[in-house]
């Protein structure tokens, strides 16, 4: 895959695909590299997209069958206490006619794939399941391409656009992306709750195809700097809550407990009654303001896109879905220097916590345990392989995997 392009774009989210559309439209040879199996496979956001922004890239997006869940015709703000609250709302007939699709809800898995198809239709090349591991530089230090995890996977380009999250490892390698401080990052969790389309219509007072957004302020964030939201989709609602990461650490708050409390609030509960949880996800957001925006361009590169590292969201989703861990931001020494790291320790108050186990007892459980994501044995093997790839020696993991393999051979 050793080739040269006008532009290499890392990340097939909205920012990366927007750039690909505009570049390909102008005749620039453009390739988009996406680490997921398909665009949108690892992405999460609240759920609202603004039509005027999308129209700047795809003017006729509605005619091109953009996978819109609902056209937003009403926006509400709820100010809540622990036991009640009041609502302020705005609704206009224009949102059903002349200003239709001013705002809309979409699902990233469907929308990102559709958006990527538009870029491919304009001539951009999309390559998925490909991890960009490093940036290529010339002797003068100018970025001239990327290195991928594919055999002979170096790609050269006149410009590299990093749209895999402005906190991505690649962005930091440019030298202009500092480690984020906890007070400059927010963490949001979201649950998608399935409801019949007609139930969504009735509860929010809309017709099929139209929807409502609700922003929720007040005691629901337990005194932390944060916000909650409730958005309507075609046959589901998106319910989420988030707060400043430093506040989470100070308050020792647990996002999964906050969203459970949100679901029982007297203003929220009637809206989701009888619904079934379909998805649970997490995302990091930049909250540092203008002063924390780094240099977004340099010799041979541009930085664009979302402001959170998607791997952190994936990690959070995996570790926090059942509440077995307590998150914390800690300072960690690495060969590259001191960094801030998201660390998960055991939640000793959780019903499944069993305390310290012997190596043998731990191996016996791992050898047999399995869940919806696969077996514990496979997970341990993956950990061992990754440690080996990174040349990290971990005696505990090595002893554990030998015991588990021994159980497997008996």
What's the SSE blueprint?
Blueprint: E1 3-10, H1 14-25, E2 30-33, E3 48-50, H2 51-55, E4 68-80, E5 85-91, E6 103-106, H3 108-121, E7 125-127, E8 132-137, E9 143-148, E10 154-162, H4 169-173, E11 185-194, H5 197-204, E12 210-218, E13 226-232, E14 236-244, H6 245-251, H7 255-263, H8 269-272, E15 276-286, E16 297-298, E17 301-303, H9 310-320, E18 325-334, E19 337-346, H10 359-368, E20 370-371, E21 374-375, H11 376-389, H12 395-408
Parallel strand pairs: 1-2, 1-10, 2-7, 4-12, 10-17
Antiparallel strand pairs: 3-6, 4-5, 4-6, 8-9, 9-10, 11-14, 11-15, 12-13, 13-14, 16-17, 18-19, 20-21
Structural commentary:
This protein is α+β, with helices and mostly antiparallel strands and 410 residues long. It has four domains: 3-47 and 107-178 and 294-307, FAD/NAD(P)-binding domain, CATH 3.50.50; 70-92 and 179-290, D-Amino Acid Oxidase, Chain A, domain 2; 323-354, no CATH class; 359-408, no CATH class. It is 28% helix and 34% strand. The chain has twelve helices and 21 strands. Strands 3, 4, 5, 6, 11, 12, 13, 14 and 15 form a nine-stranded mixed sheet that branches. The protein is globular. The protein starts with a strand and ends with a helix.
Shape: globular
Unreliable stretches (pLDDT < 50, length at least 5) are 307-311
Strand content: 25-35%
CATH class group of the largest domain: Alpha Beta
Terminal CA distance reads 44 Å
Give me the oligomer status. single chain
Number of strands: 21
CATH topological fold name of the largest domain: D-Amino Acid Oxidase, Chain A, domain 2
Computed CA radius of gyration, to the nearest angstrom: 23 Å
Q: Describe the biggest sheet?
A: 9 strands, mixed
Name of the CATH architecture of the largest domain: 2-Layer Sandwich
Supply the helix-strand structural class.
Answer: alpha+beta
Q: DSSP helix count?
A: 12
């Amino acid at each position: 895959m050793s080739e040269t392009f006008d532009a290499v774009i890392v990340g097939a989210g909205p920012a990366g695909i927007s750039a690909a559309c505009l570049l390909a439209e102008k005749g620039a040879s453009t390739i988009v590299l996406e680490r997921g199996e398909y665009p949108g496979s690892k992405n999460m956001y609240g759920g609202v997209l603004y039509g005027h922004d999308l129209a700047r890239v795809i003017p006729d997006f509605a005619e091109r069958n953009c996978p819109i869940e609902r056209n937003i015709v009403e926006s509400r703000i709820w100010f809540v206490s622990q036991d009640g609250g009041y609502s302020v709302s705005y609704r206009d007939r224009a949102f059903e006619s002349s200003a239709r699709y001013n705002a809309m809800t979409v699902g990233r898995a469907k929308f990102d794939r559709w958006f990527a198809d538009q870029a491919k239709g304009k001539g951009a090349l999309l390559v998925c399941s490909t991890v960009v591991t490093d940036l290529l530089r010339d002797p003068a230090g100018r970025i001239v391409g990327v290195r991928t995890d594919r055999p002979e996977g170096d790609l050269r380009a006149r410009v590299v656009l990093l749209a895999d999250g402005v906190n991505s490892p690649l962005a930091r390698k440019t030298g202009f992306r500092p480690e984020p401080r906890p007070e400059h990052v927010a963490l949001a969790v979201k649950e998608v709750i399935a409801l019949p389309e007609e139930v969504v219509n009735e509860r929010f007072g809309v017709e099929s195809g139209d929807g409502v957004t609700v922003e929720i302020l007040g005691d629901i964030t337990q005194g932390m700097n944060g916000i909650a939201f409730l958005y309507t989709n075609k046959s589901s609602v998106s319910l989420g809550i988030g707060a400043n990461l430093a506040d989470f650490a100070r308050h020792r708050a647990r996002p999964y407990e906050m969203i459970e409390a949100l679901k029982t609030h007297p203003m929220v509960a009637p809206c989701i009654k009888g619904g079934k949880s379909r998805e649970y996800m997490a995302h990091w957001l930049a909250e540092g303001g203008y002063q924390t925006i780094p240099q977004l361009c340099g010799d041979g590169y541009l930085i664009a896109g979302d402001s959170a590292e998607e791997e952190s969201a994936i990690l959070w989703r995996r570790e926090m879905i059942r509440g077995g861990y307590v998150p914390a931001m800690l300072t960690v020494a690495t060969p590259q220097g001191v960094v801030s790291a998201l660390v998960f320790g055991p939640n000793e108050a959780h019903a499944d916590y069993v305390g310290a186990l012997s190596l043998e007892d731990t191996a016996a459980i791992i050898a047999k345990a399995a869940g919806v994501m696969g077996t514990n044995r496979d997970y341990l093997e993956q950990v061992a392989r990754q440690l080996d790839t990174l040349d990290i020696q971990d005696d505990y993991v090595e002893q554990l995997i030998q015991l588990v393999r021994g159980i497997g051979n008996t």
